[in-house]
Amino acid sequence: MLIRPRRLRQNDAIRSLVRETTLSKNDLIYPLFVVEGENIKSEIASMPGVFHFSIDTYLLELDEVVTLGIKAVLLFGIPEHKDELGTMGYNDKGIVQQAVRESKKCYPNLMIITDVCLCEYTSNGHCGLVLDGEILNDESLELLSKTAISHAKAGADIVAPSDMMDGRIMHMREALDLAGFKNTAILSYSVKYASAFYGPFREAAQSAPAFGDRKSHQMDPANVREAVKEALLDIEEGADMLMVKPALSYLDVIKAVKEKTNLPLCAYNVSGEYSMVKAASQNGWIDEKKIVMEIMLSIKRAGADTIITYHAKDVARYLDGEKE
């Protein structure tokens, strides 16, 4: 007997009926960059369609985000002042803290996630304290936890440590609990690779290292078993959600982590992945909508429950059928 799998591919209705992987607006987290000042909406040259926002223009952007039905944003802050201790990261009057407070005033039901790292706030651009060229692990934990507490105090729903220091989840969980923020969730950048795909982000966050690199704490792109180890350690230390970053070149890692863990898993479709699509689209080499939606489905198919992506607004419009 001839087997005919094509019976289930004959038209869109039947293809939709048997589709194994689906994408919705609930899966999307939109990253945003906030800066100090007023009336600023400045496009990031290497990331077409992505901007630096001052608080006033950021709130206008949130209005569009909420209208589109996106339910969560991830905030990065770029301060005017940077120093070796990254003090503006945990200053209650810092740019992220201001943005969180204003977000919650205007859009109380929007989920606010904040990136917790020192690289945007240190004058050397590194993710922790530095002594004699070495990025200090244990000495950095207190400042990272102070940053998380400051974000939680401002109203952040979820804090997302991206530093990759050993033991930071346990330290941060204990610090948040002692400070009275037991309900503030931790989305851990559990599996963060030392990737060349972060290039455009360095411009966006103004966080390029002044010397050296981040290979001493971010993961070697060659390793998968280590990724599972990192994720399991973060679960043991108290993480509520896990993340794999980047996404596209690490779909096998997403799958491996998903199979070995039982927490919600997020994948970060990072700046370089976004910018390559935008560049190819602007040159007329690809169909942007079809490529973006295929990328999103591939990340979901690999096992991600949610996706952080700069394409989020476009994807929301695609799902509504508004943008061709």
Topology:
Blueprint: H1 12-17, E1 28-35, E2 41-43, E3 51-53, H2 55-68, E4 72-78, H3 95-106, E5 111-116, E6 130-131, E7 134-135, H4 138-154, E8 158-161, H5 168-178, E9 185-192, H6 199-205, H7 225-237, E10 241-245, H8 251-260, E11 265-269, H9 271-282, H10 288-302, E12 306-309, H11 312-320
Parallel strand pairs: 1-3, 1-4, 1-12, 4-5, 5-8, 8-9, 9-10, 10-11, 11-12
Antiparallel strand pairs: 2-3, 6-7
Helix pairs in contact: 2-3, 3-4, 4-5, 7-8
CATH topology: TIM Barrel
The helical percent reads 25-40%
How many independent structural domains?
Answer: 1
DSSP strand tally? 12
How many helices does DSSP assign?
11
Question: What is the subunit organization of this protein?
Answer: single chain
Poorly predicted runs are none
> What is the CA-CA span between the terminal residues?
42 Å
Give the CATH architecture: Alpha-Beta Barrel
- What order do the strands of the largest sheet run in, or round the barrel if closed? 1-4-5-8-9-10-11-12
Looking at CATH, the homologous superfamily is Aldolase class I
Class by alpha and beta content? alpha/beta
Order of helices and strands: HEEEHEHEEEHEHEHHEHEHHEH
Shape: globular
Cα Rg: 20 Å
For the record, the CATH class is: Alpha Beta
Textual characterization of the structure:
- The protein is globular.
- It has 324 residues and is an alpha/beta fold.
- The strands form two sheets. The protein has an eight-stranded parallel beta barrel, surrounded by nine helices. Strands 6-7 form a two-stranded antiparallel ribbon.
- It has a single domain (22-320), classed as TIM Barrel, CATH 3.20.20.70.
- It has helices at residues 12-17, 55-68, 95-106, 138-154, 168-178, 199-205, 225-237, 251-260, 271-282, 288-302, 312-320; strands at 28-35, 41-43, 51-53, 72-78, 111-116, 130-131, 134-135, 158-161, 185-192, 241-245, 265-269, 306-309.
- α2 packs across α3 (95-106), α3 runs parallel beside α4 and α4 crosses α5.
- α3 links the parallel β4 (72-78) and β5.
- The protein contains eleven helices and twelve strands.
- The mean pLDDT is 92.
